[in-house]
Write a structure and sequence with these properties.
Blueprint (H helix, E strand, L loop, with lengths): L1 E6 L3 H12 L4 E7 L2 H7 L7 E4 L11 H11 L4 E4 L4 H10 L3 E4 L4 H12 L4 E2 L1 H21 L16 H11 L4 H8 L3 H15 L4 H10 L10 H8 L29
Parallel strand pairs: 1-2, 1-3, 3-4, 4-5, 5-6
Helix pairs in contact: 3-4, 7-9, 7-10, 8-9
Keywords: DNA-binding, Phosphoprotein, Transcription, Transcription regulation
Pfam family, one: GerE
Protein name: Response regulator transcription factor
């Protein structure tokens, strides 16, 4: 029997999810919760297999990655996230925080149950729309790394000490594709402060936009290679700007038979 808990701020949504899940003979909903905090307070004694939840911060469209991380670490299960929108930042933030599934709010009941079973068995589950978005991002990062070329030798003088400790942390998160909101959550900053840090780093490194800044972050990881000097930034500025596909697929759920979450690029 798969032991499940549901967390959603909206009572009708909680009731609907419970009804769908309890329609399966192999799923048992042990409890439902209005907030993540109430779930975390009671769930350790429930010995859960899966948490089905809306992981946004109350009253906002911001994914609460800290809550997802706590659920994964404290409860030892991979939550299937049910969100009322399809923001790409939510998908990547949820997976980075440890979630093993991601579904849209209009998920078909049958596919919701399939997702719960897959996660409970130790697998992962993404709908075709989200699988495609993840694949596109994998290809984009691979292309950026290819354009960056082989690692460059250390740069003396100007590169040393250009960024502060905090700016290095922000730059690393930009290189991971984090949004300003996610950077703020990870570093316990306000979104405005995170945005200010990103703008300041772009000015210091001469990056013309966030894409080039991410490229610099990938190429010059702190601890392995320094930030480039002005001469190197000039050559980078002449590189063609990476294009991100804006093609969207109709909302759908269910993992293709041969589809799995792709591994991160080496």
């Amino acid at each position: 029997m798969i032991r499940v808990a549901v967390a959603d701020a909206h009572a009708p949504a909680r009731s609907g999810l419970r009804m769908i899940l309890e329609s399966a003979p192999d799923v048992c909903v042990l409890d439902t919760f209005a907030t993540a905090e109430s779930l975390l307070a009671k769930a350790p004694g429930l010995r859960l297999d899966v948490v089905v939840m809306d992981a946004r911060q109350p009253g906002t469209d911001v994914l609460d990655t800290a809550v997802v991380s706590r659920i994964v670490s404290e409860l030892g299960c991979g939550p299937v996230l049910i969100t009322l929108n399809d923001h790409d930042a939510h998908l990547f933030g949820a997976l980075a925080a440890g979630a093993r599934g991601f579904l849209s709010a209009d998920t078909d009941p049958h596919d919701l149950l399939c997702a719960v079973r897959a996660v409970a068995a130790g697998g992962s589950w993404l709908g075709p729309r989200h699988t495609r978005r993840l694949t596109e991002e994998y290809r984009r990062i691979t292309r950026l790394r290819s354009e960056a070329g082989p690692p460059q030798p250390p740069v003396e003088g100007e590169a040393a000490g250009r960024l502060s400790e905090r700016e290095h942390e922000v730059l690393a998160l930009v290189g991971e594709g984090r949004t300003n909101h996610e950077i703020a959550e990870r570093l316990t900053l306000s979104p405005l402060t995170a945005k200010t840090y990103v703008s300041r780093i772009m000015t210091k490194l001469g990056a013309r936009d966030r894409v080039q800044l991410a490229l610099l972050a990938v190429r010059y990881r702190r601890g392995t290679e320094p930030v480039p000097a002005r001469s190197e930034r000039a050559s980078l500025s002449r590189m063609p700007r990476a294009k991100t596909s804006r093609t969207r697929m109709p909302a759908a759920v269910g993992l293709p038979a041969a589809g799995q979450v792709p591994p991160p690029p080496p």
